[in-house]
Amino acid sequence: MVHSAPVAIGEVHLALLLSGPRHGYDIKRAHDAWFPAERPLAFGQVYATLGRLVRDGHAEVVGTHSEGGPERTVYAITDLGRERLLTWLDEPAPPAGTAGEEIIRKTVVALHATTSGADAERVLSAQRAAHLRRMRQLQRRAASSDPVRDPGREPGRSTDLAVRLADRHALLHLDADLRWLEEAAEALRAQRPTSPPDTRTATPAAKDDQEPLP
Amino acid sequence: MSPDRPSDRTPPPDDVLAEPTHPLVRLTGLRHAHGRTPALRDVDLEVGAGTAVAVTGASGSGKSTLLHAAAGLLQPDAGTVELLGHELAALDDAERAQLRRRDVGIVLQYGQLVPDLPLLDGVALPLLLDGAALGPAREASRAALASVGLSTAEDAVPAELSGGQAQLAAVARALVAEPHLVLADEPVASLDPAGAALALDLLWGVVARGGALVLVTHDNVLAARCDREVRLAHGGVQHDLDLR
Asked: What ipTM is given for this predicted complex?
């Protein structure tokens, strides 16, 4: 069964290579940790994406790696790839109200990549600006088509109502995006300076704590 | 019936009305701390005529401190506040009070109405303190109360009002002297959607008449109705966005 590629899959691979060279299996694991709510990345997807990145000069093969297991190709980001990633980060996701997936991808990447040349505060600020401008347009359109404010218009047209309701739906979804962005920004400030990924496993003691004694 | 501003008042010789060449608000290098906690760090802000500015930011980012300083309700530790071309610190108390009553409408978060006055006189207060005769001042107050749907509450004292009614009355009072500038701290947070729409339309009337509106809010939809967003973080300006 073939799934369409997730949004911005190439950029996410590049972001995962920012902190240093990685092999495909490592990229898959890190991706699944960044986006736990998404379908785990298939290996075929990872190698197809890395192949395209190498073809386009955005990543390169820097060697092989084997820890007693199978030999694995190690990939690194190139200057061109870094440029592509930062350009993508600088472009806010479309403020469509239903672009949730791209907003999540871009914000998570910005939060992780902020020590490697990206400026997460700027990314979040640009996204907020794109959203607010769209929300302003939606409200101005609503005000100009309001029959109360514009008595010359024929009231109760069903197309007007449909547009108004759709605009309202978009407006409220954009508001929800902004609230989420605020929480993400708070999380960003709270976690500075960035700590390495948590690789600890639950200790037996921690497990015992969660189980009530008989 | 249009609201009848008592325009027959004779302006005092030191009248401090707006000159269109000045920004309506100019804050320069504002700094303030509550005890040891910094609330504002070198904030600059200019607001020109015909503009609505949203001041946003997380709780504790300095939004309300900024508004109180701009309104002259709080003396900042450093920096200058100019309203309609007049530096507040250079005015004496009487001049400052006159500027606020006549040209600056202020709406605070919880209404802040005078407890013992019936609404008709409470809303007329800026005009009465400014020397208007009782008759015309009450007439203007009546019109302002009607514009926020509170005609039936003219004789009520603030304690008899709901939170939303008190907030609407505060909006009426802020607008009764037809100010050039309105400074508002969460002016519709306690209102239902219909009341909020009514109050916001009235506040935006100030902008439509060439005045300016500075709104402290945590409401993104309201911020997105403004022409600019000034976002504060930890007492500093995080961004100043033109939304037009």
From this structure: 0.84
